[in-house]
Amino acid sequence: METDENRVRAALDVWAEAVRRADVDAVAALHTPGVVLFDVVPPMTVTGLDAYLEQWRLFWDAQGEGVFDLSGLTVVAGPDVAFAYGLLRVGAAGTEGFEVRLTVGLRRVEERWLVVHEHHSVPAG
Amino acid sequence: METDENRVRAALDVWAEAVRRADVDAVAALHTPGVVLFDVVPPMTVTGLDAYLEQWRLFWDAQGEGVFDLSGLTVVAGPDVAFAYGLLRVGAAGTEGFEVRLTVGLRRVEERWLVVHEHHSVPAG
Question: Which end is more exposed in chain A, N or C (fewer Cβ atoms within 10 Å of the end residue's Cβ)?
């Protein structure tokens, strides 16, 4: 069924697939110009699409195409604002990788769901 | 003006104030029974209101009433789903504390905005 929840899930699947194949244009197309990222490495806050994409370039330089799998995703969607949270397994190809916690905030812009905010983290301590 | 954004900001202010004075009932009243917390300390995922409140009891036991200040909060609100992100300064009374990144997902239940999900983190690295 074509619900907003399903459309948000589809957008996040397209994003994960684009990260796996290091497709910067496909990643860019799913995000707003003002996207704000809380990443697993400093800086504390990454603001704007250019800076956001630079973080991915560093990631791809470090590990190449590899593991980037969403799991246990809960999606809460209204007609024009949504958020989702779950786990993300990240790592170089052929490794088990490690789990990161992920929260994503999205907004519908015309007919497309775009990511406004991402928060990735590992627990401290 | 009574916009959804303002109502969400007001709910988060009430939450921060309730945390500052260690008011467990006021904190509970702002959250859904199924709230999912990604906290700054393990476990990776805290599920349900009882477990959520237990994390606050541990926090209050450790530091008592103290600093718990939201800043730089961006709120994206639709009529029934919203999310917010910004920074949170946390610490014992009389200290500077430290900054944590915060993302919150909310849903409107009848006339009240309730927190469905919180993600608190410090950058790794």
Answer: N
